[in-house]
Amino acid sequence: MRLRLVLLTAAVAAVAAFPTIPLAAKVLYNPDLFQGDIKGVAGQEAGRERAAKLGTEFLWPWGEVPYVLGRSITTDQSSVIQAGMKDFHAKTCLRFVPRTTESNYIEIVSDDISTSCWSNVGMIRGKQLVSLYSDGCIYTGTAIHELMHTVGFFHEHNRNDRDDYVTIHSENVDPDVGMSNFDKDENWQYVGEDYNYASIMHYDMYAFSKEWGLKTIVPKDPNVVLVGPFKKDSMEESDARQINTLYAAECARRQ
Ligand SMILES: [Zn+2]
């Protein structure tokens, strides 16, 4: 009995030391998805998984992303999504436009069985889903993050130059999730901005951690605190500049 009590006390202490992962973070760390929240492979072609940004075929023509809100989207969820789109409209040349007859478009859903947040990277042709699961993904920052994948961007912490800015602590990474989530993107395209800790595409310090509280991404600058997308209301100016650079030619065609 005493042993049982000791074990119980130890278990309670362990829980207290490592609070559970906030749902809004956990839904971005789906172990079945590339880097936690990227669906399938960009371009759907083996070996080109990380090449979306390199090919103009992955860009949305004229910088316009036709969209449909799935039937699962409630009025409140729609408001959050619209706030995210508004951020793109305020800072970038991209436009999310209600779909009419376009064959390439996104449908945003909140009831996907993955119960997580995800998008493809770039336009993959046909209808492509963007998942903002009702329980955990309905935040303006999360919507902006996923939509930035949709238009062709990967994660900031997977940039090739990230080792100059952060240290990845593999000993704290959940072994069930694996280190592949921290692989550096190899086939990406530099679009003119330095590494930005505050990018909407940067995960927080506990991403894919085996225990919330054990840091996996530690900034080399000790004054920096990494904040997850769901805690933000807008993209960084440098995020916007990258979008405008990537889409300059496409947006110019619209005018
Ligand atoms: Zn992401």
Automatic annotation (TrEMBL):
<keyword id="KW-0645">Protease</keyword>
<dbReference type="InterPro" id="IPR001506">
    <property type="entry name" value="Peptidase_M12A"/>
</dbReference>
<feature type="binding site">
    <location>
        <position position="145"/>
    </location>
    <ligand>
        <name>Zn(2+)</name>
    </ligand>
</feature>
<dbReference type="InterPro" id="IPR034035">
    <property type="entry name" value="Astacin-like_dom"/>
</dbReference>
<dbReference type="InterPro" id="IPR024079">
    <property type="entry name" value="MetalloPept_cat_dom_sf"/>
</dbReference>
<protein>
    <recommendedName>
        <fullName>Metalloendopeptidase</fullName>
        <ecNumber>3.4.24.-</ecNumber>
    </recommendedName>
</protein>
<keyword id="KW-0479">Metal-binding</keyword>
<dbReference type="Pfam" id="PF01400">
    <property type="entry name" value="Astacin"/>
</dbReference>
<dbReference type="InterPro" id="IPR006026">
    <property type="entry name" value="Peptidase_Metallo"/>
</dbReference>
<feature type="domain" description="Peptidase M12A">
    <location>
        <begin position="51"/>
        <end position="252"/>
    </location>
</feature>
<feature type="active site">
    <location>
        <position position="146"/>
    </location>
</feature>
<keyword id="KW-0732">Signal</keyword>
<dbReference type="GO" id="GO:0008270">
    <property type="term" value="F:zinc ion binding"/>
</dbReference>
<dbReference type="GO" id="GO:0006508">
    <property type="term" value="P:proteolysis"/>
</dbReference>
<feature type="signal peptide">
    <location>
        <begin position="1"/>
        <end position="17"/>
    </location>
</feature>
<feature type="binding site">
    <location>
        <position position="155"/>
    </location>
    <ligand>
        <name>Zn(2+)</name>
    </ligand>
</feature>
<keyword id="KW-0378">Hydrolase</keyword>
<keyword id="KW-0482">Metalloprotease</keyword>
<feature type="binding site">
    <location>
        <position position="149"/>
    </location>
    <ligand>
        <name>Zn(2+)</name>
    </ligand>
</feature>
<keyword id="KW-0862">Zinc</keyword>
<dbReference type="GO" id="GO:0004222">
    <property type="term" value="F:metalloendopeptidase activity"/>
</dbReference>
